[in-house]
Structure formats: structure tokens, C-alpha cells
Specification:
Layout: E1 8-15, H1 21-34, E2 40-47, E3 53-55, E4 80-82, E5 90-93, E6 101-105, E7 108-111, H2 122-129, H3 139-146, H4 148-157, E8 165-169, H5 170-175, H6 177-187, E9 191-195, E10 205-207, H7 213-221, E11 226-231, E12 237-244, E13 253-254, E14 258-262, H8 271-275, E15 282-285, H9 292-308, E16 314-321, E17 327-333, H10 343-350, H11 355-368
Parallel strand pairs: 1-2, 1-7
Antiparallel strand pairs: 2-3, 4-5, 5-6, 8-11, 9-10, 9-11, 12-13, 12-14, 12-16, 14-15, 16-17
């Protein structure tokens, strides 16, 4: 901006190799719409399902996720690479005719990938190596939160309540099905079978008895060879809380508490319910109808979970609230669903933080960090 404050150059990275590619595209569409072009110069970078980096068009409407449209990064777009010189922080466009061309220095990266190869510390590690500032959790927190088995160990070690569970590899199940069946029976039915390193409820099944176990394990194994089997918390309410990194070293901020209410007899909050449902199928209550003391306890545990994994930027922490008032921590997400209709932005909107303001705050937090160890 001539004569004024230079625009912040933001690379929005989305798509990716995981099964949550379309969800990431939908998240990017919302962030692209929210970024004020008077303040930010936006560079949309898509990662294809094969892992190639391309310079995408700045066209948010292309990436809307609906029952009729599954968005996808354009594999035919111009290739880009991230320069590995920490002194530059630069993206380079590759052209077979004219050769490489710099896209100029990037001030901050807004990584919007969900699932493995993006939300799990891999992309964060690459950005750390190149010295680039970025929104969200660092390598450790991203990796811990992505792996449900490791997250349970860390959260339980911090004194947070988690449900009883088992961890197994698909090879173990196939080599010793009788032993696995016996171990799960000791855990107690019903159980949820989950890919250890997945998201958006993809690959998850609720199993009520031994007869359904094999199908659920094989289904989860389509997404990850490492599996978590968790005892179901029956007749519980699904409660969520958003967390933002505190300013200038202050403790994390927590949002008003929300509740997911499933209608029409849905078994759990699966992919369809999260992204394709109508209000008749799922009700998101913001704020949740809870006694003040219970809501305060949710916020306290959410902040403790964020600190336990060494969180940065943002997280959404999910709980089960039992009929007798116990809270069980289900999981922590370091890059939660981030469309305006997603629970995380809605909780902060209830606190008076609009979607564009939330995007601005996350970028400001990222810009305030020093690269490297902190």
C-alpha cells in the first residue's frame, strides 16, 4: 500500500494427502473469504491428493463442501515449491518454459490441512526448517493431538480424565484375532473403533458386541494401520470448548461452552452429521445449557489440555458429560473445523469475536512468535 502500512503476505495452504482433503478445501474457502484484501496479500497454495504443491486460484466459491460438491485442489495448476533457506521464507513458482519465479517473501503461513501429512506436525516441521512463521500448533502439539493413542497418554499424565481404551495395530488383529477379541471384551462393550491418526470422524464405528468388531476394525484400518478402541461413554452429552493462545504469555483464553445434540436417532457425530447435515439432524447449542459451575469446569479442563500438549494458536477440546456430572475428555483438535458454521468459530462468536476477527487474531499471534525454539 503506497504511503501506508505494507500488507501482510499470507500463504493459505490447504488440501493435502489425507482423507480430509475436501474438508480442508472447505475450511480454506471460509478463510479466503474472511481475509481483508486491504490488509493482507493472499497466496492460496493447494496440496493435491498426491502431495504436489500448486498455486491455486483465489476463488473461495470453488471449494465449498456440499452434498453435491466435493472440492479438490487442481492438480493441473502451476507447481510451487517452498524455498528451504531460512533467511528467505519464500515460495517459488515453477514454469517449464520461463523457469522458476519467486512469489516473494511470505510473512506468515496459514496451514488449513486436516489429518495426516498436514495437521500432524509434518507440515509444521517443514515450516520450522524454513524459518517461516505459521498459524497454529507447533510440531509437538500437532503430532500429539493427531495421534489419539499418544494424546491419551499425555492427557492422562496431566491428570485429565480419559475413557478406558486399547491400542493395537491391524497386523496384531489379523495375526491374533482371538486375543484381540478377548482384550476388547475385557474393555467392555459398547466401544468405538477409531483410526488412531484420523479426523472428521472418518473411519469410526460404534460396536455394540463382538459380532461387529471385525468389520469395524477393518474399516478403521482403511484409514490407519494403528487403531484405538475406546469404551463408549454411554448416555452422555457431547460438550465442546474453544481455546486460543493467550496474549503476551498470558494463560490461554477459553470460549463459551457448546453442545452437540444429535437428532433422528444418530449414533454419534459422524462425518455426515458434521458437514452435510441439516438443523433437523444436528443441533449445535451455543452456549450449552449447563450449570455455571459445570461450564467453568469444562473451560478449566480445556485450558489444561491445551497446556498439557504444549498448544499454540488454537484448539477445540471435546468432552463427554455423563448423567452423574462427570466430565470425560474425548480429544483435542489443533486445527478444528473452521468454517463459519463450525463449532469453533461459533463458540468464539458467542464471546463477541467475529469470524474475520478470529482469523486476524490467529495471524497476529503467529506473527508475534519468533521462529525456532520458543
Amino acid at each position: 500500500m503506497p504511503g501506508g502500512t505494507p500488507k501482510v503476505r499470507v500463504a493459505v495452504i490447504f488440501g493435502g494427502r489425507s482423507s480430509e482433503h475436501a474438508v480442508s478445501c472447505a475450511t480454506a474457502a471460509s478463510v479466503l473469504r474472511a481475509l481483508d484484501r486491504d490488509r493482507y496479500e493472499v497466496v492460496p497454495v493447494g496440496i493435491t491428493t498426491d502431495g504436489a504443491w500448486v498455486l491455486e486460484a483465489d476463488e473461495p466459491e470453488r471449494f465449498a463442501l456440499t452434498a453435491e460438491n466435493t472440492p479438490k485442489v487442481d492438480a493441473g495448476a502451476a507447481a510451487v515449491v517452498l524455498r528451504t533457506d531460512p533467511a528467505r521464507g519464500e515460495l517459488v513458482r515453477l514454469d517449464a518454459i520461463s523457469g522458476p519465479a519467486s512469489l516473494a517473501d511470505i510473512d506468515v503461513v496459514f496451514p488449513l490441512l486436516h489429518g495426516p501429512f498436514g495437521e500432524d506436525g509434518t507440515l509444521q516441521g517443514l515450516l520450522e526448517m524454513t524459518g517461516m512463521r505459521y498459524v497454529g500448533a507447533g510440531v509437538l502439539a500437532s503430532a500429539v493431538a493427531m495421534d489419539k493413542a499418544v494424546a491419551k497418554v499425555v492427557l492422562a499424565g496431566a491428570g485429565l480424565p480419559v475413557a478406558p481404551y486399547r491400542v493395537l495395530r491391524v497386523g496384531h488383529w489379523r495375526a491374533d484375532p482371538a486375543g484381540v477379541r478377548a482384550d476388547i471384551a475385557d474393555l467392555g462393550y459398547p466401544v468405538f473403533v477409531k483410526p488412531a491418526r484420523g479426523g472428521s470422524s472418518l473411519g469410526i464405528s460404534k460396536v455394540t458386541d463382538d459380532a461387529g468388531l471385525a468389520r469395524a476394525l477393518e474399516h478403521a484400518a482403511e484409514f490407519d494401520p494403528k487403531l484405538v478402541v475406546e469404551r463408549a461413554v454411554e448416555n452422555a452429552r457431547e460438550i465442546e470448548c474453544g481455546v486460543l493462545e493467550g496474549r503476551d504469555g498470558a494463560p490461554p483464553d477459553t470460549s463459551p461452552v457448546a453442545e452437540v445434540v444429535l437428532n433422528d436417532g444418530a449414533q454419534f457425530y459422524d462425518f455426515s452429521a458434521k458437514y452435510l447435515s441439516t438443523e433437523e439432524q444436528v443441533t449445535l447449542k451455543v452456549p450449552a445449557d449447563l450449570p455455571p459451575a459445570t461450564a467453568d469446569r469444562v473451560r478449566e479442563l480445556a485450558a489444561r489440555a491445551f497446556v498439557a500438549i504444549d498448544g499454540e494458536g488454537l484448539s477445540r477440546v471435546d468432552f463427554f458429560l455423563t448423567a452423574d456430572g462427570r466430565l470425560v475428555l474425548n480429544e483435542i483438535n489443533t486445527m478444528p473445523g473452521f468454517t463459519p458454521l463450525s463449532m469453533f468459530p461459533r463458540m468464539w462468536q458467542q464471546a463477541g469475536v467475529s469470524y474475520p476477527e478470529l482469523v486476524d487474531r490467529l495471524i497476529a499471534i503467529a506473527l508475534s512468535r519468533r521462529p525456532g525454539l520458543r
